[in-house]
Design goal:
Length: 135
């Protein structure tokens, strides 16, 4: 496990111990009770991480389809290129870096100084704008 993830799970575990202290039965061993809470927090972390990855991969597939449609439209009518040109400067730059230059979200984050989540959000908003303009 990554250090940051370990810290998050530890913090969640400690908060859960505090929150559910009323469920502890006096006279019972504390170790198994804490171990169960910790195991549940680890499972929660991986469930949350898996959900985020599934949503991101669905968005990436959908976004790739939009960019692919934009490229096809560019060859035939040029309207997709116009739609991309009409995007706000920041959204246009992020989409160019991700889809045209082929950089990863992390690489775009480093290059632009934005957080990875801000890059994803900006790109998503740009894709939504392109969809609306192409309709």
């Amino acid at each position: 496990m990554e250090a940051e993830m370990v810290e998050d799970v530890l913090q969640d575990t400690l908060l859960s111990i505090h929150r559910f202290l009323h469920t502890f039965l006096p006279g019972r061993a504390v170790g198994p009770w804490i171990y169960a809470i910790c195991g549940n927090r680890i499972a929660d972390h991986y469930r949350r991480k898996r959900r985020i990855q599934l949503v991101e991969s669905e968005i990436d597939v959908e976004d790739s389809m939009v960019v692919g449609a934009a490229a096809q439209n560019h060859e035939s009518t040029g309207t997709a290129v116009d739609a991309v040109r009409r995007l706000p400067r920041r959204q246009r730059r992020i989409i160019e870096l991700l889809k045209i230059d082929g950089l990863s979200v992390k690489e775009v984050s480093v290059q632009t100084g934005m957080s990875e989540s801000a890059v994803k959000t900006t790109a998503f908003r740009g894709y939504e704008t392109i969809r609306k303009l192409l309709r």
